[in-house]
């Protein structure tokens, strides 16, 4: 033990819980109320969704990163409790964030919107929490809404979770109604942490980020033992040994403490400078009196979509590498490796959990690290059966061998769960069929709402499926999906040629039946996106050597200012200089200037 | 030496008259409407500004533009010309131009302006089709243009120009306008592509979804104009300008040859002693400064070194004669972009002169030029 044992909080009076729900069902708003009721934040400092601290989160009104905060709560009986609350994201792309939060808790508060009812991520997150062995406290939120129908939603919730209607709490995170009772129920129902204060330290690193001034900051949950300022510690997976330079809790402001005991959640800063030496999911133990076995940690998340990211300025490659190293500290689900493209130069191929994740990562890289990036069309990972029988995993269409050098291509499938009003079943089935889905199962949550399960190729789901689904159901459907293995499909590689030169960044693997549509769509879209140049530019789509679509960008004919007289020389010169700047954002592909939007535009490809 | 380059020795002066009856939807000049009561005061302010400029040398070319100079009393304009002559003198046969709108013109006014010293007139004809004129916000009828031209000739103007606009969206009358314009046998013809300038009414309309000019249609219209003008004996000497031999405008030739020039009046730009400067663009501010005998400058920019060299080529390539390549022209020619432009027949290097062969792509050349890195400093 260290010479000054920290003033430990008795574990019996600690409650660690997270809030889980479908997106927009009110997790962050409820967190606001809990912070207020427990006095963690003064009324003056209160703003909406106060835990959504990233600019991106505030702009988009969504939670991207889970956030931990410590609350002091005096219960009805006058006893002081310590509550550790973790607010989590709701979008399917961030379910990995949720599962990591769950591992740091004993209880989960499951919210469902009293008007919208149980949705796909309500179910998905409930399953994650049940599998993690957490005590679940179900609640309907937004009972203040005129359209609220708490009875129906409660019936749906117990239909899924079991239990009795009276076990489901009724809340309005907006007005605060039911929040006091909720706090008491948290104290009553969430089990206290079970850790042993006297055994060797085992602390789970459940998140981390890179701070430009302080280096690597780790968020930890102490499971066994305790940790004090100055303690020598060892990261069990990486073997890194350091001493604790700072330890603290988030209230939500960072507050330094002398140490943390079992069940407590906080942050710590060590001398780790090398980013790769800290891994989320690792166990920290005492370097001198270490534990034998690490905590279970997490399953590595499996990326679903892959895309290339390339710096606009070739010189920024190293900066991009550093930015990715730092960002992965804060986003353990992000995978990357170097890639080179004939069209785009040197960059990285990244694996993402979904398109939203991809968008967020790209924006964070651009904003937080000041980079200017081009992203290629996202693709799923395929498996190619080689003539010698081996399976080759390819994450980029350009890596798929020629038809002569492969026996077949397998693509990833998912099990998709859709919850929607029953009246839309027909239209959903039609969409699923068009997306090569296989007949699935149907389950009524209530007489009006159904849960549909299908097996679908991932590539048909990740891109615009959800948008299509929403437009067919007037916005009432929700979607969740999980990997379900690989399957052989009749896939072909479509290349796009500009002025006769194939542009690797535009190649795509698509189902044979959709190849012509894809080719036509891409050539038409590029025709709109590529500015007219000094010569005609043919844009072709091809499978192997066979052309399946063609468009032409006609040569530019007029590009001259009508007037340039004594009165406007400076203005005209500046105008042309500005246009020249715009041209810098173009990539030269062969002899053709391609604007960056063209690469991004492939994102929006909709083959319906 | 090319005539185009000799123009660098021309001494020119510009005088701006900002008054207009109404603002045309495409216009972004320094213009005021409903201030005609200020014209006499304004001309007085001009003479004060002129007197403040230190003596230069006899002027070869004076250009009174606008706005609509033809709205102002010829006698007042005469006083402005007198002030210029008093300050710098005029050379033997100076070119003295005035811009005029056809609806203001009459034989009497033409004679009065001749009396005041003008010998060249440029009419804002714009179109010979009444519905196109209406769409352009113009106040005259096609036949007023012909009357104005005849009156100018009768009064003894030795050089007459017509300004016309092509590429108005939905306009099918360009051929008609060209025939009508050329049948008046102008000495000079300026054909301008309608341009959507920020801040104009036209800009707002296009931003709000109205059809804007179509570049391909404008290219066709320009090519039609080139063929028609040439068969009428006019020779093109700049992107938008055609003239009978001997009638190219000296004032503009001077500007494109990077000559220095004086300028007076609201928002006017001058280039003197390697500095480009411009006047206040707000009428009351300008008047107050000029009347106090204070500087009317609102801003200035030195044009020196590489900036000046690039600008020399930037201006020169607008001319059919091209420009002496010099360091900037050579650098452009040898750059990757220069070679691409050459490969596609846009530019040529001909006996040390850089010439743009595909006139309608001149800005592609200009952008490549402006993107050149300045050469390392040499001693
Ligand atoms: N009427 C009403 N609106 C609520 C309530 N709780 C949350 N909201 C609103 O629902 C939206 C989504 O809330 P947010 O907390 O961001 O949801 P999250 O995505 O689950 O974190 C916001 O506009 C909130 O103001 C509630 O109890 N009543
Ligand atoms: S008359 Fe000429 S200067 Fe006056 S508003 Fe119209 S275009 Fe502009
Ligand atoms: Mg949230």
Structure report:
The complex is a heterodimer of chains A (608) and B (379). With 608 residues, chain A is of the alpha+beta class. In chain A, the strands form seven sheets. In chain A, strands 2-3-1-4-5-6 form a six-stranded mixed beta sheet, sandwiched between helices. Chain A has a six-stranded antiparallel barrel with strand order 7-8-14-11-10-15. Chain A is globular, with a radius of gyration of 27 Å. Chain A starts with 13 loop residues before the first strand and ends in a 7-residue tail after the last helix. Chain A contains 14 helices and 32 strands. In chain A, 25% of the residues lie in helices and 33% in strands. Chain A folds into five domains: 11-189, Rossmann fold (3-Layer(aba) Sandwich), CATH 3.40.50; 202-286, Translation factors (Elongation Factor Tu (Ef-tu), domain 3, Beta Barrel); 305-378, Elongation Factor G (Translational Gtpase), domain 3 (Alpha-Beta Plaits); 383-489, Alpha-Beta Plaits (2-Layer Sandwich), CATH 3.30.70; 493-602, 2-Layer Sandwich (Alpha-Beta Plaits). Mean pLDDT of chain A is 87; it is low at 1-6. With 379 residues, chain B is of the alpha/beta class. Chain B folds into two domains: 2-256, TIM Barrel (Alpha-Beta Barrel), CATH 3.20.20; 305-370, no CATH class. In chain B, 40% of the residues lie in helices and 23% in strands. Chain B contains 15 helices and 17 strands. Chain B has helices spanning 3-6, 39-52, 74-88, 107-116, 130-135, 142-155, 174-183, 201-207, 215-231, 250-256, 283-292, 305-316, 326-334, 336-343, 362-370; strands spanning 12-17, 19-20, 32-33, 59-66, 90-100, 120-126, 159-166, 188-193, 235-238, 241-243, 261-264, 269-272, 275-279, 297-302, 323-324, 347-350, 353-356. Chain B has a nine-stranded mixed beta sheet, sandwiched between helices. Chain B has a three-stranded antiparallel beta sheet with strand order 12-13-14, with no helix packed on it. In chain B, a hairpin with a 2-residue loop joins strand 16 (347-350) and strand 17 (353-356). In chain B, helix 13 packs across helix 14. Bound molecules: guanosine-5'-diphosphate (GDP), iron/sulfur cluster and magnesium ion (MG). The site of guanosine-5'-diphosphate has 20 residues of chain A, from helix 1.
């Amino acid at each position: 033990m260290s010479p000054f044992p920290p003033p430990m909080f008795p574990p019996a009076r600690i409650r660690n819980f997270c809030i889980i729900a479908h997106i927009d069902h009110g997790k962050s708003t409820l967190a606001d109320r809990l912070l207020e009721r427990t006095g963690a934040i003064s009324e003056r400092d209160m703003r909406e969704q106060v835990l959504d601290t990233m600019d991106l989160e505030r702009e988009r009104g969504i939670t991207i990163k889970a956030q931990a905060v410590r609350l002091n709560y005096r219960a009805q009986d006058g006893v002081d409790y310590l509550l550790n609350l973790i607010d989590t994201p709701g979008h399917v792309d961030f379910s990995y964030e949720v599962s990591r939060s769950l591992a740091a808790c004993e209880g989960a508060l499951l919210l469902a919107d009293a008007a919208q009812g149980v949705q796909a991520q309500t179910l998905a997150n409930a399953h994650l929490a049940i599998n993690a062995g957490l005590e679940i406290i179900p609640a309907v939120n937004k009972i203040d809404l005129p359209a609220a129908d708490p009875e129906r939603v409660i019936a749906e919730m117990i239909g899924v979770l079991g239990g009795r209607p009276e076990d489901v709490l009724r809340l309005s995170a907006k007005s605060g109604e039911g929040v006091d009772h909720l706090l008491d129920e948290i104290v009553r129902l969430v089990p206290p942490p079970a850790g042993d204060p006297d055994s060797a330290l085992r602390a789970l690193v459940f998140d981390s980020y890179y701070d430009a001034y302080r280096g690597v900051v780790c968020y930890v949950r102490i499971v066994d033992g305790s940790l004090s300022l100055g303690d020598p510690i060892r990261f069990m997976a990486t073997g890194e040994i350091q001493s604790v330079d700072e330890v603290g809790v988030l209230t939500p402001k960072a507050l330094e403490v002398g140490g943390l005991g079992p069940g407590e959640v906080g942050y710590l800063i060590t001398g780790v400078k090398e980013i790769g030496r800290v891994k989320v999911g690792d166990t920290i133990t005492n370097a001198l009196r270490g534990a034998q076995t690490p905590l279970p940690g997490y399953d590595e998340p499996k990326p679903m979509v892959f895309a290339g990211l390339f710096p606009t300025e070739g010189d920024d490659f190293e900066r991009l590498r550093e930015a990715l190293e730092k960002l992965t500290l804060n986003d353990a689900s992000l995978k990357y490796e170097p890639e080179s493209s004939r069209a785009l130069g040197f960059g990285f191929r990244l694996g993402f959990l979904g398109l939203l994740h991809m968008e967020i990562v790209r924006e964070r890289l651009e904003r937080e690290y000041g980079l200017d990036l081009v992203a290629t069309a996202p693709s799923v990972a395929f498996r190619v059966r080689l003539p010698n029988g081996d399976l080759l995993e390819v994450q980029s269409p350009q890596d798929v061998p020629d038809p002569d050098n492969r026996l077949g291509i397998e693509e990833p499938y998912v099990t998709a769960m859709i919850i929607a009003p029953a009246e839309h079943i027909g239209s959903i089935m039609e969409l699923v069929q068009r997306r090569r889905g296989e007949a699935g199962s149907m389950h009524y949550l209530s007489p009006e709402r159904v849960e549909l399960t299908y097996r679908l190729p991932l590539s048909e789901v990740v891109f615009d499926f959800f948008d299509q689904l929403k437009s067919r159901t007037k916005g009432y459907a929700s979607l969740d999906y999980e990997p379900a293995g690989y399957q052989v499909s009749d896939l072909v590689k479509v290349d796009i040629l500009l002025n006769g030169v194939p542009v690797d960044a535009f190649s795509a693997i698509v189902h044979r039946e959709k190849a012509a549509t894809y080719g036509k769509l891409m050539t038409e879209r590029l025709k709109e996106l590529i500015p007219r140049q000094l010569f005609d530019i043919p844009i072709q789509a091809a499978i192997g050597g066979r052309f399946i679509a063609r468009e032409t960008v006609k040569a530019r004919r007029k590009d001259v200012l009508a007037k340039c007289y004594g009165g406007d020389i400076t203005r005209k010169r500046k105008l042309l200089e500005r246009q020249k700047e715009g041209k810098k954002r173009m990539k030269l592909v062969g002899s053709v200037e391609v604007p960056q939007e063209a690469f991004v535009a492939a994102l929006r490809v909709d083959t319906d | 030496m090319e005539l185009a380059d000799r123009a660098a020795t021309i001494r020119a002066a510009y005088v701006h008259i900002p008054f207009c009856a109404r603002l045309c939807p495409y216009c972004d000049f320094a213009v005021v409407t409903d201030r005609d009561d200020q014209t006499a005061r304004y001309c007085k302010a001009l003479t004060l500004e002129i007197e403040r400029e230190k003596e230069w040398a006899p002027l070869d070319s004076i250009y009174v533009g606008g706005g609509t100079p033809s709205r102002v009393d010829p006698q007042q304009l005469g006083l402005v010309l007198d002030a210029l002559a008093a300050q710098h003198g005029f050379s033997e046969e100076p070119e003295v131009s005035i811009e005029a709108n056809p609806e203001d013109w009459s034989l009497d006014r033409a004679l009065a302006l001749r009396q005041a010293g003008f010998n060249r007139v440029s009419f804002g004809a714009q179109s010979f089709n009444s519905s196109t004129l209406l769409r352009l916000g113009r106040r005259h009828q096609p036949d007023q243009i012909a009357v104005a031209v005849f009156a100018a000739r009768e009064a003894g103007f030795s050089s007459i120009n017509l300004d016309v606009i092509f590429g108005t969206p939905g306009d099918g009358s360009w051929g008609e306008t060209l025939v009508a314009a050329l049948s008046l046998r102008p000495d000079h013809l300026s054909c301008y592509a309608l341009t959507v300038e920020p801040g104009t009414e036209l800009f707002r309309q296009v931003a709000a979804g109205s059809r804007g000019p179509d570049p391909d249609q404008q290219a066709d219209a320009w090519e039609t104009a080139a063929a028609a003008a040439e068969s009428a004996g006019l020779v093109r000497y700049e992107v938008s300008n055609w003239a009978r031999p001997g009638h190219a405008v000296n004032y503009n030739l001077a500007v494109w040859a990077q000559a220095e020039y004086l300028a007076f009046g609201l928002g006017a730009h001058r280039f003197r002693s390697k500095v480009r400067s411009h006047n206040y663009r707000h009428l009351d501010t300008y008047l107050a400064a000029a009347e106090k005998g204070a500087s009317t400058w609102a801003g200035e920019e030195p044009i020196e070194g590489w900036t000046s060299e690039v600008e020399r080529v930037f201006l020169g390539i607008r001319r059919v004669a091209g420009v002496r390549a010099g360091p900037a022209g050579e650098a452009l020619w040898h750059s990757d972009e220069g070679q691409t432009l050459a490969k596609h027949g846009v530019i040529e290097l001909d006996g040390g002169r850089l010439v743009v062969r595909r006139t309608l792509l001149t800005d592609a050349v200009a952008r490549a030029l402006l993107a050149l890195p300045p050469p390392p400093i040499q001693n």
